[in-house]
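notes to self, project folder thing:

trying the whole complex as one job this time. last attempt i did each chain seperately and stitching them together was a nightmare. four parts in total, labels are on each line so i dont mix them up again. if this works i'll redo the older ones the same way
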Amino acid sequence: MSVHYDSILKHIDQHVTLSDQEKKTLCAALIYKKFRRKQYLLQDGNICTHDYFVISGCLRQYEVSLNGKENTVQFAFENWWISDWNSMLHSQPSVYNIEAMESSEVFMIEKNELEKLYTEIPKLESYFRKIFLNAFISLQKRILFQQKTAEERYLEFTKSYGWFEQRLSQQHIASFLGITRETLNRLKGQQHKEN
Amino acid sequence: MSVHYDSILKHIDQHVTLSDQEKKTLCAALIYKKFRRKQYLLQDGNICTHDYFVISGCLRQYEVSLNGKENTVQFAFENWWISDWNSMLHSQPSVYNIEAMESSEVFMIEKNELEKLYTEIPKLESYFRKIFLNAFISLQKRILFQQKTAEERYLEFTKSYGWFEQRLSQQHIASFLGITRETLNRLKGQQHKEN
DNA sequence: CGCCGAGTTGAACTGAATCAAGAAACGTGG
DNA sequence: CCACGTTTCTTGATTCAGTTCAACTCGGCG
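result (full assembly):
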């Protein structure tokens, strides 16, 4: 088995226990792929057909609004799942772009393959139930987060996600926080003076 | 079987097919309860121990921020599940309040009972995977929603959720939209003039 | 070397919040 | 069924956080 499988099997093992046979079946459905910086995994207008699991690197999912602004919905780092499940579920064109921030390695699972896996490995239902529950919980926090002032958001961000602040450009952080590049920059300035 | 079970069984049936025996097992774990308007299902500071399924009526989940403002995270109408899964999962005090907006009927499932149900009725894993996936998709839309201007949010809200606009007070709608009562009111005024 | 994208800083502007105060609507008890 | 207090809604005037626009700096890379 390729060394890459380790990361995903380890992650799944934190939630459910698969037999060797099940692991084999699962891995057979995984497609390994590398993406370079700025390369798209998904572009808006296309129908999303795959789930993505990040082995290494960093992805960004964002929408471009009518006035041309980018709204970052989420970042995905090592061991995160990302996709446009709405597009996949309803076979509708996606409103999102998913782009590699760094050169990244991912596993892809095709929609129908995943459906098959659910019947072959029922434990995966449990695994993804937990994954989606956790994802739901994070997003709920983000709803509250967005109600706060720019400064509060910035402080909370550095506290909670400081560890990936260096890996991202200011513009991308700003679009995640829902503020402009300029405002984020001014907030950073303030911080320095206070310290 | 009580007539109330119909609603939840029907809802589950839209996602997975249970045997009669499984239905019985499930229903045995459900606790039926009525709540009056303004009554709390969960108060912040308490640890959430139950999932709630709304049979009839309407609930609201909100956080009270330090400055005393209420931020509505979500409403729950007929056939919706609601709870603080973060509090439940980690046995931590909840930051949310869940309150009945109207007199409401709900089914409650206790945390450990639900865990047992997952092993007894594996199909429920599938059911809740789908429920959480849908919940996740809605929240992702809400992230983008919150980036828009007050007016855009109001228009989109009336378009998408107009059907429950009458059942909610303006303050509650405002706190869901992330704007003040006053601003919402002014937006309604504008609409009338334009028509 | 020169270009281009990313970051910085300033000044003017604006959408929405805040503060304030009056008008409906609601429900509860006499 | 009306009178009362309570809550919700409405409207206006003022303020402010954050955007916008614009210019300028810095570092990397062909």
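what i see at first glance: Residues 149-151, 179-180, 182-183, 186 of chain A lie near DNA strand D (CB under 10 Å from a C1').
need to look closer tmrw
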